[in-house]
Amino acid sequence: MRAPSDPPSVPAEIELSPMRRRHVRDVLAIERVVYPRPWSAALFFSEIAQRSSRYYLVAHLHKTLAGYGGLMCQQDEGHITTLAVRPEFQHQRIGSRVLFALVSEARQRGMASLALEVRVANWPAQRLYSWFGFRPVGVRKNYYSETGEDALVMWVDDMQGEEYGARLGRIEVAVRRA
Ligand SMILES: CC(C)(COP(=O)(O)OP(=O)(O)OC[C@H]1O[C@@H](n2cnc3c(N)ncnc32)[C@H](O)[C@@H]1OP(=O)(O)O)[C@@H](O)C(=O)NCCC(=O)NCCS
Questions:
Q1: How far is the C-alpha of 116 from the C-alpha of 138, rounded, in Å?
Q2: Is residue 3 part of a domain?
Q3: What are the tens digits of pLDDT across the range 1-49?
Q4: Residue 89 included in any domain
Q5: 3-state SS of 89-132?
Q6: Which residues partner with 57 through β-bridges?
Q7: CA 178/CA 14 separation, integer angstroms
């Protein structure tokens, strides 16, 4: 929680909520701008319908859908399936806020590890994931067929450990003060 003396800031006004079907039109508008091969509405509908194994969030800023992200949980392995912020809203810690919520949910659901794929050239996203403790563990060749780009596989193991809990605590302080 922000202390009463903390200065108000744009990210503090971000509201996170579960992604619903009514959000998908705005999600797709972002998807088309930030990804060379955007997901379809049908894919988002299918993902958010699987409530026991999926967790999708949207972030609103002043009623505008500014970003979103998703988590998939299978047995004790979590996977960040997507994370995106509208270009004009990037660099305001919205991505960090969404990722923090997804990672916290994964931890709460008892995931032992958490993985994701990211384009090898996507340094901003890799920096963000490194901050959250994701380490590169391998490369999937030609993972992104539309561009032939390789994916870097990053993961966090021992999500339930004290050390990772402490890292999340520090991140929480940082994102709330952003
Ligand atoms: C990746 C993406 C979601 C990040 O969203 P964002 O809202 O801009 O991210 P944030 O403002 O929370 O900040 C990310 C920051 O974490 C920063 N960070 C890394 N380590 C940090 C640390 N120790 N302390 C504080 N910040 C740190 C990164 O450097 C980056 O800062 P920048 O704004 O100076 O570049 C956004 O760029 C995006 O939508 N990109 C296109 C889609 C995409 O690539 N998604 C990822 C697919 S795997």
A1: 11
A2: no
A3: 333 334 334 456 899 999 999 999 999 999 999 998 999 999 999 999 9
A4: yes
A5: HCCCCHHHHHHHHHHHHHHHCCCCEEEEEEECCCHHHHHHHHHC
A6: 18, 69
A7: 11
Number of domains in the chain: 1
CATH number reported for the structural domain that contains residue 130 in this entry: 3.40.630.30
Report CA(92)–ligand 1 centroid distance (Å): 9
Q: Please say whether the beta carbons of 59 and 16 come within 8 A.
A: yes
129 Cα: distance to centroid of ligand 1 (angstroms): 8
Of the candidates 105, 52, 90, 95, which has an alpha carbon nearest to the alpha carbon of residue 74?
52
User: Which residues is 71 bridged to in the sheet?
Assistant: 55, 80
CA 87 to centroid of ligand 1, rounded, Å: 11
Q: What tens digit of pLDDT does each residue of 42-90 get?
A: 999 999 999 999 999 999 999 999 999 999 999 999 999 999 999 999 9
At 147, is the secondary structure helix, strand, or coil?
coil
Q: What is the token pair recorded at 102?
A: 């997804």
| Cβ 125 under 6 angstroms from ligand 1 | yes
Give the domain range for residue 96: 11-177
Active site residues: 117, 129
5: in domain: no
pTM: 0.91
Position in ligand 1 atom list of the atom nearest CA 90: 8
At 63, which amino acid appears? K
